[in-house]
Structure formats: structure tokens, C-alpha cells
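We now fix the convention by which a protein and its fold are recorded. Here is one such record, which you should read through line by line:

>
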Amino acid sequence: MEKLFTPSDLERIREAVAGAEGRTSGEIVPFVIPRSERYEVAVWRGASFLAVAALAVTTLVFQFYEGWGMAWLYTGWGTALVALVAGTLGAVLAAFAPPVKRLLAGDDLLTRMAHRRAMQAFVEEEVFNTRDRTGILLFVSLFERRIEVLGDAGINARVSPEDWADVVLRIRAGIKAGKLAEGLIDAIGMCGQLLERKGVEIRPDDVNELPDGLRMGREDV
């Protein structure tokens, strides 16, 4: 995770949060995590899929091949070896090839796990711990390619989920361009502008209730 952000990036993100919060009573918490789940189920699916596919091919060989060159395949151990090798290959592909793991995990599971991790981060980072319940979590889970904006009660009373669409799109554009830090900085600025438009006004006695820096979650969940 540290390789994704330079010290300069981290400082600029902190400054962006401070600048956005200087105009409203919102407390913005950017949070980035490598992945929200390990997805062991994808490894098992990969192993099962290739093992079954290999057995299906073996069955076709039994049906149509009439030569003697693969006599070993007609033995019990030969068939078992084919299934074992194919299953191992499927497991390795699912474990170490992120596109394969995402495909085998499925969009629904990726979305569900990312949302669950976002809710966990909301609690762990104490985004709820503000006087007027004006905390906002900008959550990015890189492996799942999921971005969520979670607002506390004071934010949700004025800002609808649809209002965050441009903020999410800006972060996604930054990731696609290989400039995650820039995407976050721009999105944080957009949050401040949106909160101003929605009337989440700064109070005369406003204080900084949550740290302004980027939070980086651990992968070993």
C-alpha cells in the first residue's frame, strides 16, 4: 500500500481534506484497502472447474480415441492424475491471477464483501464520532474495484446516495489513469463543494473532530 502513495501524495491528501472541511461541517475520511476479502471460494471454484473440464475431455478421449499412445490414461491412476493436475492448475490461477479470481468470485460477492468491509471501516475509523453526525467515509477497495461513499446521519439527511455519483466517478477515473492520489484529491474537493451546495454549513465553533490523513486498511482480513 505504501508504494501507491508518496509522502507528497499523503500530504496533499491531508491538505485536501483540511481544505474541504474548512468550508463545511463535514468530516471526510478517505480510506483505501488492497482488498476486502481473500476469496478462498474462488480458489476452490477454479480447482473444481478445471478438474471437471479435464475429466470431460478425458471422457471424450475414451469415446473417440482408438490409438495406443495414451494407454496410461485408461488406468484409474491416469484419470486421477489428470484431474489432480488440472485442479491444481485451476487453484493456482485463481490464487495468483487477480482477473481470474474476480471472475470466479463473481460480481455479487465482490460487491457484498466490499460493502461489508466499508461498513467495518466506518466503525473502526470512528467516522460516526462527530458532534453533528457529519462524518463521511470515502472507501476504495482496489482488488474488488469498488468505491463507496458512506455518510453519517447528519450527512444523509441532506445528501442523497445519487449525489455522490460524480465523486465516485472521479476516484474511478484516477485509478484507471494510474493516479489514485490525484483522483482522491479531486474527489475530496468535490465533496466539500457538494456539502456546501447541500447546506452542510460550518458552525462558528467548528473544530476538527477526525484526523485529516489518508487511512490505509490492512490486507490480512
In short: The longest strand covers residues 27-33. Helices lie at 7-21, 40-64, 76-96, 98-105, 107-124, 153-156, 165-176, 180-197. Residues 27 and 135 are 5 Å apart (CA to CA).
